[in-house]
Amino acid sequence: MKQWKQKIACLLAGIMVITGFFPWNSSVSVHAEESLIKSSAEGFEYRLKVYESGIKEYICTSDTTQVYDNYQDAVKGLADISRKILTERKAEPFTVKIPVEIKADQKVDGIEKGSNPFNDAVHKETYKETGNPNEGQGLAQFLDARGNLLNDKLDKITYDETTKSYEGVFYYHMLSHQYAERYSKTITKLKEVIDSLNLDEKSDYEKCKTIREWIGKNVKYDREYAKDPANCSRRNAHDMTGAILDGYAVCDGYANLFHYMANATGLLTLFEEGYQIGSGLQHAWNLVKIDGTFYYTDCTSIALDKDGNATGEFLLGQDTMFNLTVTPKNNDIENTYSNISKDDWSKEHSVCKGNHNLVKTGEGPATCETMGYTGYYCTNQGCIYRYRDYNKEPLGHNYDYTNGEITQSQDCTHPEITTYRCTRCKAPIEVETKPSLGGHKWQPGDIIKAPTCTVNGEQEYTCTVCNQTKTEPVKATGHDWQINKILSAATCTSNGIARYICKTCGYEENHTMYATGHKPEIRNKKEATCSSTGYTGDTYCSVCNKKLSLGETIAKKGHTWVKQDNIPATCEKGEMEVEKCSVCGETKETQISDPLGHDFGEWKTTKEPTCTKYGTKKRICKRCNEYEIDVIDPTGHQHTKIIDQKAATCEEKGYSGDLYCEDCRVIIQLGQEIAATGHTWDDVTITKEPTQTETGIRTYTCKKCHKTRTETIPMLKGHHWDNGTVTKEPTCTEPGEMTYHCTDKNCNESYTETIKATGHQHTKLINKKDATCEEKGYSGDTYCEDCKQIIKTGKAINPTGHDWDKGTVKKAATCESDGIKEYTCKTCKKTKEETIAPTGHTKTEIRNKKQATCKEEGYTGDTYCVTCGKKLASGETIAKTDHDWTITETEATCEHDGMKTYTCDICGTTKSEPIKASGHKFGAWATTKEADVFSKEEQKRTCGICGKTETRTIGDKLNATISMNATSLKLKKKQTTKKFTVTGLAKSDYITSWTSSNKKIVTVTGNQNGTCKIKAGNKTGKAKITITLASGLKKTINVTIQKKAVICTAIKNVSKKLTLNKKKSYQLKPVINPITCTNKIKYKSSNKKIAKVSSNGKITAIKPGKVKITISVGKKKFVSNVIIKK
């Protein structure tokens, strides 16, 4: 880094308050050869930088610029990134550079004022409380850093009017701190403590109470440190590491510890500082959010009973806190958070639930600084609420200014200070009773050490008032160089070398003779005309003839336009105003009215449409024969019928029929099947009567299709049957028969019924065998005892297999030998043995290892088994390592070489590499001042690396030009006109004078911008008016003064024919010649129902038709024929 950058970095570091180290999660080792470490901030990474001094530093930055649309977005965005980076871990010093662009329509006060309001806003947002114990005060107690908004060169940032933004970096310079190990141990222990408190299911109040009780039991107030911090062995009483690791803390140590523990358990907690009422000593405390409301709590003095439980009120309201205990440094917290309770917690949340029975306890007297009060307490059982009515104003101090003590004597730099004390409370007040003597009056004395060319000297100074002395450096004189010998001459592009010698001390050294640079000249230049471009010319070096840069094309010069006859409007183009360049003859056209629009005839069909296909039609414009073609929608199926229709029958399906178009002969919709209707049976007909021995028949006939179906009629009941006789016995598998006989006399009728087979009713399992561990079993056959048959064959049962126990080791395996393990079956007690594989050399260690360095070889080490001690493998020789280079770099510039020096951190070997000067990288020439009539164009280009600039002039001065709206004027006696104007002046030119050749005839007063007032005298005659430009160009006009008024001779710039669409308008802009005509312009419409014209010449079309618009100026008239279309 350049020295000036290092100085700025140190300055910035000096204004930051570094009070500790910031949170880490676990150790990380970063080697010097690693170039990048990713940050948790998206897009950011740490890059290693080694300075000439050997100091290593990590720069946390990003290649992406953070772009913000406004001031507030920038504050929030930079704070979010800063918070992530500051809470990350980095064991070495580091710098933060956040590339930033802040957009703004105009300069922002918060940035313009040294950026301090902006930096303060980012700092406040970075350290705001989030509920995360490692952020807010949790971060501030170990690292309170303030960033700075600077430009890319770490200097004051400025507003860029071109981009409408501020572009630069937001910069932090951080130092590592010795508290890293303490912090890590503290966080580890705190996590164990919080876990042991079991707070997850507890209320907010219970969490707060439990944390306070733990702090009260485990942390003591460090009175030794408070009394004499310089001689106390403990150094961390102000942060929570002292409370956790040492067991001691002072007020802010307590407050920082409670802040961390409460936030870690979900209680939003704030940290506040101020002064104790009465003593005025600095103090710190907390605000904790309980069920949505903030209360004040102070852990410095925690009251516990014999069982270690908190007693008394520990959640105070603002009235109690600020009237009785402390005064805050500022009201930032009170102004930020609106939900801070005025009353103590117990007022509404004690056992009384707000229904207190208050009894007066006594009076609290007012003091010099605090209000007096009347005290009350609640008599309800278990209530701890105390109420104080602050009703007496503070007395104020009564200082005894007649009895003071001089506590500081007056001298050159210090005023006399007298301390007086209050007669009531003895509080001191310091008063300046005499000013300082105005500072030392230093008298230069002897030079006690003379300066040399390279070493500062010293000079002694003595104060003429108090005789105090001081020594100040006398700047080294520096070498007084002169060229001794030119070793190599410089050229346009290459540096030379000269040997210089100091005239004073004779010291010699080589100096670079910088390249002389090219001597530019312009070649191939070409002037632009109105019809062709020009060329600025190429730049060559007049010394070495090298082409340095290409020229640029010069735009064509502007045309000198002269109005021509207009081109009438057509259907598709409006009326065109035509102008022609009087220099090159080029023309241009400008549309001044709307197109007429097409006048189409009737549509004619060119292709007839069909049922499903589009037809076409065409119509032709009556004016220009342009035509339009449009489509005719399909006709649709207009003539249809149903075909292939079939009615459904009782048993066969029908069909609804297809829809058929008779025009296009296509089936356009298929039909659907119709379900069969089913039979409709008539009343039954008995076709065979039943008897007592035979069944009858019923016959049904369908009414629609006459199909028939029959049903059986059971036999008549008339016989008296006996109980039947088994004529064939049923078996397990065969049915039997039962025969019934009529018992009526003389009736021999009988009938037979089937008896179902009995089935296998009496069965048993035979041939069953249980399976064993190794032999198959058999499920058994099913045997019928009635029919003596096997009715179901059994199945084989697989062996059950042995149920081995876990086994017993008979012989243990070693690293290389098998072992034996015996297993016993739990069922059959049979045993088996299995081999235990060798364990192998599972636990090994490396012996005789030696690290390689850049000085000597190393050895990987031999591998031994820890169990059996056997050498398993020999190591290998490790080649010498490469040098562990630390690089120190002197940066090259555009004009000077740099140097890169490598130093091995192990063996001290060094080597150097030159870094060639880059040479200037000039950008394109940019015009800084355009050419005008007085000077040529000026251009500048800038080196993109070092910012060096070069300037040049190019081209020629502009030619002086002038245009007038009249070449001569006529005026009536005493007439005044302002209508004459001058235009067309070249850049930067202006009118220096207006003069009349005869002021009795005419006078003129004019302006630099070309306007004037010309006034005719009281007599006729002729005179000349001369206009003189700053460039020296002069123009003269002839003025004639006459008795009669100047009459109009011509009305121009109006078309003879105009075409407008209905409800459209057109503005007439007639030009009256001569310009000094005094008659007013009048407009008239021949038919106001078709078109009307206003007094200022605006035509409004009302309905279709033709109308004449007459323009009158005195006796001169001009008629424009206007056609109004639909």
UniProtKB/TrEMBL annotation:
GO terms for cellular component: cytoplasm. Residues 958-1039, 1047-1123 form the BIG2 domain. It comes from the Bacteria. This is Bacterial Ig-like domain (Group 2). It comes from Anaerostipes hadrus.
